[in-house]
Amino acid sequence: MKRFSKEENSWIFYDWANSAYSIIISTAVFPIYYKAAATDAGVSPSDSTAYLGYTIAIATFILALLGPILGTIADYRGFKKRFFTFFFSIGIVFTGLLAFIPTDKWWLLLICYTLAAVGSAGANVFYDAFLVDVTTEERMNRISSRGFGLGYIGSTIPFIISIAIIVLAQNEVIPLSVTLASKIAFIITALWWGLFSIPLFKNVHQRYYIEREPNPVFNSFKRLGNTLKEIKKYKALFLFLLAYFFYIDGVGTIITMSTAYGTDLGIDSTNLLIVLFVTQVVAAPFAILFGRLSEKFTGKKMLYVGIFIYIIVCIYSYFLETTLDFWILAMLVATSQGGIQALSRSYFAKLIPKEKANEFFGFYNIFGKFASIMGPLLVAVTAQATGNSSSGVFSLVLLFIIGLVILSRVPEPKVS
Protein backbone atom coordinates (compact mmCIF):
# COMPACT_ATOMS: atom_id res chain seq x y z
CA MET A 1 0.00 0.00 0.00
CA LYS A 2 1.56 3.28 -1.13
CA ARG A 3 1.78 6.31 1.15
CA PHE A 4 -1.16 8.67 1.42
CA SER A 5 -1.13 11.56 -1.04
CA LYS A 6 -1.43 15.22 -0.01
CA GLU A 7 -5.07 15.25 -1.15
CA GLU A 8 -5.86 12.05 0.79
CA ASN A 9 -4.20 13.35 3.95
CA SER A 10 -5.95 16.72 3.70
CA TRP A 11 -9.31 15.00 3.27
CA ILE A 12 -8.61 12.64 6.17
CA PHE A 13 -7.55 15.58 8.35
CA TYR A 14 -11.01 17.16 8.18
CA ASP A 15 -12.25 14.27 10.33
CA TRP A 16 -9.61 15.36 12.87
CA ALA A 17 -11.12 18.86 12.77
CA ASN A 18 -14.84 18.08 12.71
CA SER A 19 -14.78 15.27 15.26
CA ALA A 20 -14.29 17.85 18.02
CA TYR A 21 -17.85 18.96 17.26
CA SER A 22 -19.09 15.38 17.19
CA ILE A 23 -17.91 14.51 20.69
CA ILE A 24 -18.12 17.85 22.54
CA ILE A 25 -21.35 19.21 21.05
CA SER A 26 -23.25 16.18 19.76
CA THR A 27 -22.26 13.60 22.35
CA ALA A 28 -20.62 14.86 25.53
CA VAL A 29 -20.46 18.37 26.94
CA PHE A 30 -23.48 20.02 25.33
CA PRO A 31 -26.05 17.30 26.18
CA ILE A 32 -24.91 17.34 29.83
CA TYR A 33 -24.89 21.16 29.83
CA TYR A 34 -28.37 21.26 28.29
CA LYS A 35 -29.75 18.61 30.67
CA ALA A 36 -28.50 20.63 33.65
CA ALA A 37 -30.01 23.85 32.26
CA ALA A 38 -33.36 22.16 31.58
CA THR A 39 -33.42 20.54 35.04
CA ASP A 40 -32.71 23.90 36.70
CA ALA A 41 -35.66 25.30 34.75
CA GLY A 42 -37.96 22.61 36.19
CA VAL A 43 -38.08 20.23 33.21
CA SER A 44 -38.25 16.53 34.16
CA PRO A 45 -35.39 14.21 33.06
CA SER A 46 -37.57 12.17 30.69
CA ASP A 47 -39.07 15.32 29.13
CA SER A 48 -35.68 17.00 28.63
CA THR A 49 -34.40 13.82 26.95
CA ALA A 50 -37.51 13.81 24.76
CA TYR A 51 -37.06 17.47 23.80
CA LEU A 52 -33.46 16.76 22.82
CA GLY A 53 -34.70 13.88 20.67
CA TYR A 54 -37.29 16.09 19.00
CA THR A 55 -34.65 18.75 18.34
CA ILE A 56 -32.29 16.25 16.71
CA ALA A 57 -35.22 15.06 14.58
CA ILE A 58 -35.96 18.61 13.40
CA ALA A 59 -32.32 19.30 12.50
CA THR A 60 -32.00 16.07 10.54
CA PHE A 61 -35.33 16.65 8.77
CA ILE A 62 -34.06 20.01 7.47
CA LEU A 63 -30.90 18.41 6.07
CA ALA A 64 -32.80 15.47 4.66
CA LEU A 65 -34.92 17.80 2.55
CA LEU A 66 -32.01 19.96 1.39
CA GLY A 67 -29.42 17.22 0.76
CA PRO A 68 -30.38 15.81 -2.67
CA ILE A 69 -31.36 19.21 -4.10
CA LEU A 70 -28.19 21.00 -3.02
CA GLY A 71 -26.09 17.95 -3.89
CA THR A 72 -27.43 17.91 -7.45
CA ILE A 73 -26.56 21.60 -7.92
CA ALA A 74 -23.13 21.04 -6.36
CA ASP A 75 -22.22 18.49 -9.05
CA TYR A 76 -21.54 21.42 -11.39
CA ARG A 77 -17.90 22.46 -11.72
CA GLY A 78 -16.74 24.57 -8.76
CA PHE A 79 -19.95 24.30 -6.72
CA LYS A 80 -18.96 21.52 -4.31
CA LYS A 81 -16.43 23.62 -2.36
CA ARG A 82 -18.87 26.57 -2.21
CA PHE A 83 -21.64 24.51 -0.62
CA PHE A 84 -19.19 22.88 1.76
CA THR A 85 -17.93 26.32 2.85
CA PHE A 86 -21.46 27.65 3.39
CA PHE A 87 -22.54 24.86 5.74
CA PHE A 88 -19.12 24.73 7.40
CA SER A 89 -19.47 28.43 8.27
CA ILE A 90 -22.97 27.98 9.70
CA GLY A 91 -21.74 25.11 11.87
CA ILE A 92 -18.80 27.02 13.33
CA VAL A 93 -20.75 30.25 13.96
CA PHE A 94 -23.62 28.61 15.85
CA THR A 95 -21.29 26.29 17.75
CA GLY A 96 -19.50 29.36 19.05
CA LEU A 97 -22.81 31.11 19.80
CA LEU A 98 -23.78 28.32 22.21
CA ALA A 99 -21.32 29.93 24.65
CA PHE A 100 -23.25 33.21 24.70
CA ILE A 101 -26.79 31.96 25.40
CA PRO A 102 -28.03 32.32 29.03
CA THR A 103 -28.59 28.94 30.69
CA ASP A 104 -32.14 29.85 31.72
CA LYS A 105 -33.01 29.98 28.01
CA TRP A 106 -32.76 26.20 27.56
CA TRP A 107 -35.12 26.30 24.58
CA LEU A 108 -32.84 28.84 22.86
CA LEU A 109 -29.92 26.47 23.42
CA LEU A 110 -31.83 23.84 21.48
CA ILE A 111 -32.51 26.25 18.60
CA CYS A 112 -28.83 27.22 18.37
CA TYR A 113 -27.86 23.55 18.62
CA THR A 114 -30.23 22.77 15.72
CA LEU A 115 -28.54 25.33 13.45
CA ALA A 116 -25.05 24.13 14.46
CA ALA A 117 -26.13 20.56 13.70
CA VAL A 118 -27.48 21.60 10.28
CA GLY A 119 -24.15 23.26 9.50
CA SER A 120 -22.06 20.30 10.61
CA ALA A 121 -24.18 17.67 8.89
CA GLY A 122 -24.54 19.78 5.74
CA ALA A 123 -20.79 20.23 5.44
CA ASN A 124 -20.34 16.48 5.90
CA VAL A 125 -22.54 15.77 2.85
CA PHE A 126 -20.04 17.54 0.59
CA TYR A 127 -17.01 16.37 2.57
CA ASP A 128 -18.10 12.75 2.08
CA ALA A 129 -18.64 13.42 -1.63
CA PHE A 130 -15.04 14.66 -1.92
CA LEU A 131 -13.92 11.06 -1.23
CA VAL A 132 -14.29 10.23 -4.94
CA ASP A 133 -12.07 13.23 -5.81
CA VAL A 134 -9.12 12.41 -3.56
CA THR A 135 -8.55 8.67 -4.01
CA THR A 136 -9.18 5.55 -6.10
CA GLU A 137 -11.87 2.93 -5.54
CA GLU A 138 -9.48 0.27 -4.29
CA ARG A 139 -8.19 2.67 -1.59
CA MET A 140 -11.57 4.03 -0.45
CA ASN A 141 -12.14 1.61 2.44
CA ARG A 142 -8.74 2.37 3.94
CA ILE A 143 -8.94 6.14 3.38
CA SER A 144 -12.47 6.40 4.79
CA SER A 145 -11.57 4.26 7.81
CA ARG A 146 -8.36 6.22 8.40
CA GLY A 147 -10.45 9.38 8.41
CA PHE A 148 -12.68 8.07 11.18
CA GLY A 149 -9.67 6.73 13.08
CA LEU A 150 -7.82 10.04 12.91
CA GLY A 151 -11.04 11.80 13.85
CA TYR A 152 -11.33 9.80 17.07
CA ILE A 153 -7.70 10.50 17.93
CA GLY A 154 -7.93 14.20 17.10
CA SER A 155 -11.16 14.73 18.99
CA THR A 156 -9.56 13.51 22.22
CA ILE A 157 -7.26 16.55 22.40
CA PRO A 158 -9.93 19.29 22.65
CA PHE A 159 -12.02 16.84 24.67
CA ILE A 160 -9.24 16.39 27.25
CA ILE A 161 -8.74 20.14 27.45
CA SER A 162 -12.48 20.68 27.89
CA ILE A 163 -12.83 17.92 30.50
CA ALA A 164 -9.84 19.28 32.42
CA ILE A 165 -11.32 22.76 32.56
CA ILE A 166 -14.76 21.45 33.61
CA VAL A 167 -13.42 19.04 36.26
CA LEU A 168 -11.07 21.69 37.70
CA ALA A 169 -14.00 24.09 37.86
CA GLN A 170 -16.18 21.45 39.57
CA ASN A 171 -13.52 20.94 42.22
CA GLU A 172 -12.95 24.69 42.60
CA VAL A 173 -9.29 24.34 41.63
CA ILE A 174 -9.73 27.19 39.15
CA PRO A 175 -11.98 30.23 39.73
CA LEU A 176 -14.58 29.30 37.12
CA SER A 177 -18.13 28.04 37.37
CA VAL A 178 -18.98 24.74 35.65
CA THR A 179 -21.28 26.70 33.37
CA LEU A 180 -18.49 29.02 32.23
CA ALA A 181 -16.11 26.06 31.85
CA SER A 182 -18.65 24.36 29.55
CA LYS A 183 -18.98 27.54 27.50
CA ILE A 184 -15.22 27.63 27.07
CA ALA A 185 -15.47 24.09 25.69
CA PHE A 186 -17.88 25.33 23.01
CA ILE A 187 -15.41 28.05 21.98
CA ILE A 188 -12.55 25.52 21.89
CA THR A 189 -14.64 23.31 19.59
CA ALA A 190 -15.33 26.11 17.11
CA LEU A 191 -11.67 27.17 17.01
CA TRP A 192 -10.37 23.60 16.64
CA TRP A 193 -12.86 22.84 13.88
CA GLY A 194 -11.93 25.97 11.92
CA LEU A 195 -8.16 25.78 12.31
CA PHE A 196 -7.69 22.17 11.25
CA SER A 197 -10.03 22.45 8.27
CA ILE A 198 -7.50 24.65 6.46
CA PRO A 199 -5.69 21.72 4.68
CA LEU A 200 -8.96 20.62 3.06
CA PHE A 201 -9.64 24.14 1.77
CA LYS A 202 -6.10 24.37 0.37
CA ASN A 203 -5.54 20.93 -1.15
CA VAL A 204 -8.87 19.21 -1.90
CA HIS A 205 -10.57 20.10 -5.17
CA GLN A 206 -13.47 18.82 -7.24
CA ARG A 207 -12.05 16.50 -9.91
CA TYR A 208 -15.32 14.92 -11.07
CA TYR A 209 -18.11 17.25 -12.11
CA ILE A 210 -20.72 18.18 -14.66
CA GLU A 211 -19.97 21.21 -16.80
CA ARG A 212 -22.02 24.29 -15.96
CA GLU A 213 -25.03 25.08 -18.13
CA PRO A 214 -27.70 27.79 -18.30
CA ASN A 215 -30.36 27.74 -15.57
CA PRO A 216 -28.33 25.46 -13.23
CA VAL A 217 -31.03 25.29 -10.56
CA PHE A 218 -33.77 24.28 -13.02
CA ASN A 219 -31.51 21.74 -14.72
CA SER A 220 -30.45 20.36 -11.33
CA PHE A 221 -34.08 19.61 -10.49
CA LYS A 222 -34.43 18.03 -13.94
CA ARG A 223 -31.39 15.81 -13.37
CA LEU A 224 -32.68 14.86 -9.94
CA GLY A 225 -36.01 13.89 -11.50
CA ASN A 226 -34.27 11.80 -14.16
CA THR A 227 -32.28 9.97 -11.49
CA LEU A 228 -35.49 9.11 -9.65
CA LYS A 229 -37.09 7.91 -12.92
CA GLU A 230 -34.07 5.71 -13.62
CA ILE A 231 -34.01 4.23 -10.14
CA LYS A 232 -34.09 0.68 -11.54
CA LYS A 233 -30.72 1.41 -13.18
CA TYR A 234 -29.26 1.90 -9.70
CA LYS A 235 -31.02 -1.02 -8.00
CA ALA A 236 -28.00 -2.19 -5.97
CA LEU A 237 -27.26 1.36 -4.85
CA PHE A 238 -30.75 2.11 -3.60
CA LEU A 239 -31.09 -1.32 -2.03
CA PHE A 240 -27.96 -0.50 -0.05
CA LEU A 241 -29.45 2.87 0.91
CA LEU A 242 -32.54 1.11 2.22
CA ALA A 243 -30.40 -1.15 4.40
CA TYR A 244 -28.34 1.85 5.49
CA PHE A 245 -31.55 3.71 6.38
CA PHE A 246 -32.37 1.14 9.03
CA TYR A 247 -29.03 0.24 10.59
CA ILE A 248 -27.54 3.74 10.63
CA ASP A 249 -30.68 4.94 12.42
CA GLY A 250 -29.72 2.88 15.44
CA VAL A 251 -26.04 3.89 15.23
CA GLY A 252 -26.82 7.62 15.09
CA THR A 253 -29.42 7.48 17.83
CA ILE A 254 -27.10 5.67 20.25
CA ILE A 255 -24.29 8.17 19.53
CA THR A 256 -26.33 11.37 19.86
CA MET A 257 -28.42 10.36 22.88
CA SER A 258 -25.89 8.32 24.85
CA THR A 259 -25.07 11.02 27.40
CA ALA A 260 -28.72 11.90 27.98
CA TYR A 261 -29.40 8.18 28.46
CA GLY A 262 -26.49 7.85 30.88
CA THR A 263 -27.73 10.85 32.85
CA ASP A 264 -31.17 9.26 33.18
CA LEU A 265 -29.47 6.14 34.59
CA GLY A 266 -28.01 8.31 37.36
CA ILE A 267 -24.41 8.37 36.11
CA ASP A 268 -22.75 11.65 37.12
CA SER A 269 -21.30 14.02 34.53
CA THR A 270 -17.66 13.37 35.45
CA ASN A 271 -18.03 9.61 34.88
CA LEU A 272 -19.90 10.25 31.64
CA LEU A 273 -17.12 12.44 30.28
CA ILE A 274 -14.43 9.92 31.22
CA VAL A 275 -16.39 7.07 29.60
CA LEU A 276 -16.82 9.08 26.41
CA PHE A 277 -13.13 9.98 26.33
CA VAL A 278 -12.04 6.34 26.64
CA THR A 279 -14.62 5.42 23.99
CA GLN A 280 -12.93 7.80 21.54
CA VAL A 281 -9.49 6.36 22.30
CA VAL A 282 -10.66 2.76 21.83
CA ALA A 283 -12.69 3.59 18.70
CA ALA A 284 -9.69 5.00 16.81
CA PRO A 285 -7.70 1.77 16.27
CA PHE A 286 -10.89 -0.24 15.71
CA ALA A 287 -12.01 2.11 12.91
CA ILE A 288 -8.65 1.64 11.17
CA LEU A 289 -8.80 -2.13 11.86
CA PHE A 290 -12.21 -2.36 10.16
CA GLY A 291 -10.69 -0.74 7.06
CA ARG A 292 -7.80 -3.18 6.93
CA LEU A 293 -9.96 -6.23 7.60
CA SER A 294 -12.34 -5.13 4.82
CA GLU A 295 -9.48 -5.63 2.36
CA LYS A 296 -9.23 -9.25 3.48
CA PHE A 297 -12.86 -10.15 4.20
CA THR A 298 -14.70 -7.47 2.08
CA GLY A 299 -16.46 -4.35 3.33
CA LYS A 300 -19.84 -6.06 3.36
CA LYS A 301 -18.77 -8.78 5.79
CA MET A 302 -17.26 -6.19 8.12
CA LEU A 303 -20.54 -4.26 8.01
CA TYR A 304 -22.24 -7.48 9.16
CA VAL A 305 -19.84 -7.61 12.10
CA GLY A 306 -20.59 -4.00 13.06
CA ILE A 307 -24.36 -4.46 12.88
CA PHE A 308 -24.19 -7.66 14.96
CA ILE A 309 -22.24 -5.84 17.68
CA TYR A 310 -24.86 -3.09 17.76
CA ILE A 311 -27.62 -5.66 18.18
CA ILE A 312 -25.78 -6.89 21.28
CA VAL A 313 -25.49 -3.26 22.46
CA CYS A 314 -29.26 -2.71 22.17
CA ILE A 315 -30.09 -5.90 24.06
CA TYR A 316 -27.50 -5.23 26.77
CA SER A 317 -28.70 -1.62 27.23
CA TYR A 318 -32.08 -2.85 28.45
CA PHE A 319 -30.45 -4.41 31.50
CA LEU A 320 -28.17 -1.49 32.41
CA GLU A 321 -28.13 -0.65 36.11
CA THR A 322 -24.63 0.45 37.16
CA THR A 323 -21.77 2.63 35.96
CA LEU A 324 -19.82 -0.57 35.15
CA ASP A 325 -22.66 -1.67 32.87
CA PHE A 326 -22.45 1.66 31.05
CA TRP A 327 -18.67 1.22 30.67
CA ILE A 328 -19.16 -2.21 29.10
CA LEU A 329 -21.81 -0.82 26.76
CA ALA A 330 -19.56 2.07 25.72
CA MET A 331 -16.64 -0.22 24.94
CA LEU A 332 -18.86 -2.42 22.77
CA VAL A 333 -19.96 0.66 20.85
CA ALA A 334 -16.33 1.79 20.51
CA THR A 335 -15.36 -1.43 18.71
CA SER A 336 -17.71 -0.82 15.80
CA GLN A 337 -19.11 2.71 15.61
CA GLY A 338 -16.27 4.13 13.49
CA GLY A 339 -15.91 1.04 11.33
CA ILE A 340 -19.58 0.79 10.41
CA GLN A 341 -19.74 4.47 9.46
CA ALA A 342 -16.48 4.47 7.52
CA LEU A 343 -17.21 1.33 5.51
CA SER A 344 -20.77 2.49 4.76
CA ARG A 345 -19.32 5.69 3.29
CA SER A 346 -16.73 3.91 1.14
CA TYR A 347 -19.15 1.11 0.13
CA PHE A 348 -21.56 3.74 -1.16
CA ALA A 349 -18.81 5.76 -2.89
CA LYS A 350 -17.85 2.69 -4.91
CA LEU A 351 -21.42 2.23 -6.15
CA ILE A 352 -22.06 5.76 -7.46
CA PRO A 353 -21.08 7.50 -10.72
CA LYS A 354 -18.26 9.86 -9.69
CA GLU A 355 -19.43 12.87 -11.68
CA LYS A 356 -22.72 12.73 -9.74
CA ALA A 357 -21.10 12.23 -6.34
CA ASN A 358 -22.83 15.19 -4.68
CA GLU A 359 -26.25 14.23 -5.98
CA PHE A 360 -25.90 10.65 -4.76
CA PHE A 361 -24.34 11.63 -1.45
CA GLY A 362 -27.38 13.88 -1.13
CA PHE A 363 -29.48 10.71 -1.27
CA TYR A 364 -27.04 9.08 1.15
CA ASN A 365 -27.69 12.03 3.43
CA ILE A 366 -31.48 11.93 3.04
CA PHE A 367 -31.63 8.22 3.88
CA GLY A 368 -29.30 8.70 6.82
CA LYS A 369 -31.02 11.82 8.09
CA PHE A 370 -34.58 10.58 7.75
CA ALA A 371 -33.44 7.48 9.59
CA SER A 372 -32.06 9.76 12.29
CA ILE A 373 -35.51 11.27 12.69
CA MET A 374 -37.11 7.91 13.37
CA GLY A 375 -34.61 6.71 15.97
CA PRO A 376 -34.63 9.72 18.32
CA LEU A 377 -38.41 10.00 17.99
CA LEU A 378 -38.78 6.33 18.87
CA VAL A 379 -36.59 6.75 21.95
CA ALA A 380 -38.31 10.02 22.89
CA VAL A 381 -41.85 8.66 22.62
CA THR A 382 -40.96 5.42 24.41
CA ALA A 383 -39.12 7.28 27.19
CA GLN A 384 -42.15 9.48 27.83
CA ALA A 385 -44.65 6.63 27.55
CA THR A 386 -42.79 4.24 29.87
CA GLY A 387 -40.75 6.67 31.97
CA ASN A 388 -37.77 4.42 31.15
CA SER A 389 -35.13 5.33 28.54
CA SER A 390 -33.86 1.72 28.38
CA SER A 391 -37.02 0.54 26.64
CA GLY A 392 -36.48 2.99 23.80
CA VAL A 393 -32.87 1.93 23.23
CA PHE A 394 -33.86 -1.75 23.31
CA SER A 395 -36.48 -1.16 20.58
CA LEU A 396 -33.71 -0.10 18.18
CA VAL A 397 -32.66 -3.75 17.82
CA LEU A 398 -35.46 -4.23 15.27
CA LEU A 399 -33.93 -1.57 13.00
CA PHE A 400 -30.53 -3.31 13.02
CA ILE A 401 -32.11 -6.67 12.15
CA ILE A 402 -34.06 -5.18 9.24
CA GLY A 403 -30.94 -3.42 7.98
CA LEU A 404 -28.93 -6.65 8.21
CA VAL A 405 -31.49 -8.62 6.20
CA ILE A 406 -31.66 -6.02 3.42
CA LEU A 407 -27.87 -5.60 3.30
CA SER A 408 -27.54 -9.35 2.69
CA ARG A 409 -29.28 -8.79 -0.66
CA VAL A 410 -26.89 -6.06 -1.82
CA PRO A 411 -24.02 -7.19 -4.11
CA GLU A 412 -20.44 -6.37 -3.17
CA PRO A 413 -19.35 -3.36 -5.29
CA LYS A 414 -16.87 -4.14 -8.07
CA VAL A 415 -13.69 -2.11 -8.18
CA SER A 416 -13.27 -0.59 -11.62
UniProtKB/TrEMBL annotation:
Topology in membrane: Multi-pass membrane protein
Subcellular location: Cell membrane
Entry keyword Cell wall biogenesis/degradation: no
Signal peptide as annotated in the record: none
Domain Major facilitator superfamily (MFS) profile, chain residue ranges per copy: 236-416
One Gene Ontology MF term: transmembrane transporter activity
PROSITE patterns registered for this protein in UniProt: MFS (PS50850)
Protein name listed in UniProt: MFS transporter
Organism: Metabacillus litoralis
